[in-house]
């Protein structure tokens, strides 16, 4: 079959992936701390690359969505007045720890809440059972706890954090692994962990940095490219049909 048929088919498939990236940006316009992504393509006429299904795509069949880059520019500021809301003015991330997996992740979303844990007091009651006390900690609402600037969990008393919320940073953010819409983990090339230079603001939150007008324009552009790719497939099919009819 004509090679242009496969080129058009691959292009249409990759444009659908690109549409997913910008559609996700639009869906998170109101997500605190969300960082918009940008689709990056590689030309298959120069490289053999793996597609999403881990199958090798041969040289000369168009382009492939190679990776997505995250835009870490700060988003607009929203004042909430809540004591559990925090904003980083400048560079840096909040750190969250999952006590079940010991995973530490980074986020720019400071929309925190209060969670309680039971902690042994070292005493026993009349029945010989260990006595536990309820301690309130600053958390993200999804089972992860916020770390202080010394790396410990932050106790909360009368809705006020007893220790300063930590701000952590890396030399560069290129290639960070995105766990969900607002959480990231570093990779080796990000360098070593260091104290962030940003300034902590209480009662404020960072909004999504996705721009609605820009995202919609990218969606329209992607739809047009998808349509052109399908026209290539249709034209290739018509050429093949004509050739087959001539042979008969």
Account of the 3D structure:
This protein has 248 residues and is α+β, with helices and mostly antiparallel strands. 25% of the residues lie in helices and 33% in strands. The chain has helices at residues 3-27, 212-247; strands at 37-43, 49-50, 56-57, 63-70, 77-79, 86-89, 94-98, 103-107, 113-124, 130-139, 144-146, 156-157, 160-161, 168-169, 177-178, 183-185, 194-195, 199-202, 204-206. The strands form 8 sheets. It has a 5-stranded antiparallel sheet with strand order 11-7-8-16-15, with no helix packed on it. It has a two-stranded antiparallel sheet with strand order 1-4. The protein has a two-stranded antiparallel sheet with strand order 2-3. Helix 1 packs antiparallel against helix 2 (212-247). The mean pLDDT is 87.
For the structure shown, list the relevant keywords.
single chain; 248 residues; alpha+beta; 5-stranded antiparallel sheet; two-stranded antiparallel sheet; 2 helices; 25% helix; elongated
Tell me about the largest β-sheet: 5 strands, antiparallel
Number of helices: 2
N to C succession of SSEs: HEEEEEEEEEEEEEEEEEEEH
How far the N terminus sits from the C terminus, by CA atoms, comes to: 17 Å
Helix content: 10-25%
Residue stretches low in confidence (pLDDT < 50, at least 5 long) are: none
Strand composition percent: 25-35%
Global geometry:
elongated
Return the average pLDDT rounded to an integer.
87
What structural class do the secondary elements suggest?
alpha+beta
Determine Rg (CA atoms, Å): 25 Å
């Amino acid at each position: 079959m004509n090679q242009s048929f496969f080129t058009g088919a691959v292009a249409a498939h990759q444009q659908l992936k690109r549409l997913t990236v910008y559609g996700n940006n639009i869906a998170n316009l109101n997500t605190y701390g969300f960082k918009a992504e940008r689709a990056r393509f590689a030309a298959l006429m120069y490289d053999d690359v793996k597609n999403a299904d881990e199958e090798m795509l041969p040289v000369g069949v168009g382009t492939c969505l190679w990776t997505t880059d995250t835009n870490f520019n700060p988003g607009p500021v929203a004042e909430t007045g809540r004591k559990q809301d925090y904003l980083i003015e400048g560079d840096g991330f909040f750190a969250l720890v999952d006590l079940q997996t010991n995973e530490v992740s980074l986020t720019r979303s400071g929309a925190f809440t209060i969670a309680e844990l039971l902690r042994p007091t070292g005493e026993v009651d009349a029945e010989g059972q260990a006595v536990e006390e309820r301690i309130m900690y600053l958390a993200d609402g999804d089972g992860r706890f916020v770390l202080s600037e010394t790396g410990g969990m932050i106790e909360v008393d009368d809705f006020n954090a007893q220790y300063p919320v930590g701000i952590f940073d890396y030399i560069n953010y290129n290639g960070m692994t995105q766990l969900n819409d607002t959480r990231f983990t570093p990779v080796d090339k990000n360098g070593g962990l260091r104290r962030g230079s940003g300034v902590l603001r209480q009662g404020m939150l960072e909004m999504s940095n996705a721009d609605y007008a820009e995202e919609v324009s990218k969606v329209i552009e992607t739809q047009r490219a998808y349509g052109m790719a399908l026209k290539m497939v249709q034209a290739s099919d018509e050429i093949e049909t004509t050739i087959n009819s001539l042979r008969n």
